[in-house]
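G., the chain you wanted modeled:
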Amino acid sequence: MTTLTAGDPAPDFTLPAPGGDTLSLADFAGRKLVIYFYPKAGTEACTREAHDFNKLRGDFDAAGTALLGVSPDPAKALGRFTAKHEIGFPLAADEAHQLIEAHGIWVEKSMYGHRFMGVERTTVLIDATGHIARIWPKVKVTGHAEEVLAAARAL
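Predicted structure as tokens:
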């Protein structure tokens, strides 16, 4: 399992996005970037997290910081989610877990006695030089977007 820490170069990626586009780390070059990893679009906590970041997207933009949500959902599902919830920043599909595994957050989980592999909700703040500035593992959604915004402003 990969363990990334602050100061490490952010893993490069190219991932599908809704509408047939792709997104890569190079698309955000020269800007700070928040990548928040979430288990599944449309679930209660994931929807709330997307809404929280979406409400603050103007503040993130003013702080010179782009937002990107990443999940193992297919791009088509992310397109429906984006349209339904009017998400104003890109979401990327990591069905093969390329970026998720590069961050070491494809982990064994347990729910109601059932064990399965899934995404550990995590947020990564990348500085304008492409290095990891901060990682929030095992995110609790309430108040998280505001905390990330404060860190982005301070960077």
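The two ends are 28 Å apart (CA to CA).

Shout if anything looks off.
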